[in-house]
Amino acid sequence: MRNQIIDNESNQTYLQEGLSKTFMSNVFSYMTIALLISGLAAYTFGNIESLEHMLRNESGTTFFGWFVMLAPIGLVILLGAKVNKFSYATVLGLFILFALLIGMSLSSIFIIYTDSSIVTTFLVTAGTFGIMAGLGYTTSTDLTQFGSILKMALIGLIIAIVGNMLMGSSTMDYIISGLGVLIFTGLTAYDTQKLKNIGAQININSEAGKKSSIMGALSLYLDFLNLFLFLLRFMGGRD
Predict the structure, then answer these.
(1) What is the pLDDT of residues 5-32, one digit of tens each?
(2) Which one of 46, 166, 185, 196 is least enclosed by Cβ atoms within 10 Å?
(3) How far apart are the C-alpha atoms of 172 and 49, rounded to whole Å?
């Protein structure tokens, strides 16, 4: 009887690990697709003058440019609030639209920074992200409390960013960038572990499971994006 209980527990653990791996594979697949869409949109709108003028002109940011910058915030809020009511196809469509708009809004980096420094920063970001995601997936340490601290630090970071918009301190900007790198490096590990645990408890083939994969991809996409942007402030060579 005891051996049977142990075997059942082992089979359950093995099953959960399999579900987690499949779920995380789906999450990273969606995230990769989103990054490719964003990267292509950013490069296209940053290097084709007619498209660039749709976002920015001699007078500054156009109305469409402001829409492109602000709409992703609304999409994240909408997805967070209505994901359970939306169909899988709707959630996927909004996710793709989000990635497209983010890419369009990021097109300015190809105007500000050199292409080589953008590529280098992206590779460093990918390496850092991969290491921390791997750590979050494999560690046996519960990162819940660590994640709570990081979330509070993120709130403080947002306040500091808003405050520095008024002060315009270059020194403070570098400090904020350094803190941003540390916070989103840590959040990558925390979010990966959280998603791994979700994957072990959900039917990945169900409508809810598919939508959870997309929302997980959105979470890691935002970690990657913010880590990239904060690193770019340090590593980006200006034209």
Answers:
(1) 444 444 455 456 667 788 999 999 999 9
(2) 166
(3) 33
Number of domains in the chain: 1
pTM for this one? Answer: 0.89
Range of the domain at 60: 2-235
